[in-house]
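Usage

Read records sequentially. Each one opens with the input sequence:
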Amino acid sequence: MNEQPVRSASSAGTPSVVGKRLHAFLDAERVADDLRRYFAIGLPPGAGVFTGGWFEHLAGGGDRQQVANRFTAEDLIAVQTLSVTVPAPVALDLLEGPLGAQLGKLLRDIPTGTDLADADASAVADGSPAHQAWTLLKNQRKVGFVIAGKLLARKRPRLLPVYDRVVRCALGRPPSFWTELRTALRENDGDLHHRLLDLRRSAGLPQTLSALRVADVAIWMAHPTPGHRCP
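and closes with the structure output:
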């Protein structure tokens, strides 16, 4: 992938590479236990060691109605739980500057409460408000595709996935990750999407956790490459 999440999709009727690879991670015997450990399900208070367990739910979530169309300080802290930090000048611009105003206008046109599996293809297409927001963020100094993607995943957790170097290594570099993942989630009458929801339930995770986050954590916990580095 050229560090760009949206453009082409797998041809109709052909099982997607992204889908095959993600199914393989979900087939792992330990996947439910990995999810419970990551989110500290069944562990005593304070026993959890993965700060990313707070990413979607910190301060009520980045997509709650009051803040869905603007970036907040809580959003900046939330992305830090995933081991990235928004550079201070960009953070200030997001909170109180023209960058935040520009992104606010784009966020108003990005659906909330819609799963990627159910979204129209135009929601993640080249030139869509989501793509424009991602491009605007990515092009900020010292931001790049990883931080841009995590910021948008915080604001639209059900629609826009985390796509960082771990996920890229595990699932590959399609010309359009958002579009390819949407295709994979919709294949076979949405089998992969429903499988993620079933896994969320069997692991005892909250129903408010997005299917995309279940997939992301399953990959991150099981990724076999030492230090999550690709060859």
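Summary fields computed downstream for this record:
- The longest helix spans residues 177-202.
- The chain is about 50% helix and 0% strand.
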